[in-house]
Amino acid sequence: MALPFPLMLALAFFAGVLLDALTVQVIGGKVEISAGSSILLYGVLAGIMHGLRPLFARGRWEVHCILSGVFTSLIVLAQYLMITFRRGSLVFTREIWWQIGGTRSYRDGDRAHLLLGLQWLGQITAYSYGPERGQLE
Q1: What residues have CB less than 8 Å from 82, skipping those under 6 apart?
Q2: pTM: predicted TM-score of the whole model, two decimal places
Q3: Confidence of residue 136 (pLDDT cuts 50, 70, 90)
């Protein structure tokens, strides 16, 4: 099941508000990550994922699995770039790349195991998770 576009945007807005509430930083009167940036980023990335909805509806979840890992890294990279541009120093050390890429590799492994486990569970229980047919948005 995939969500209709307006509901997907509403959930992206909600997730962006929550991430902004957790990551908005004001240090010495300067805002490092401004409120609303996560909302915009989540909206764009969710729009791309929603554009690939026909693949998901046909049962091709692998693309979404890989892209969710890539997009998780893009979110971390975007937050780091916002902070470094505000501070005025662009530095990429090995630890920073590990934070950006390490989260992706770890999450990709988690997602693949979870989705394969759910697929295996569906086969055991004889759940037919065939493609969506005849549904209008």
Answers
A1: 32, 33, 34, 37
A2: 0.68
A3: very low
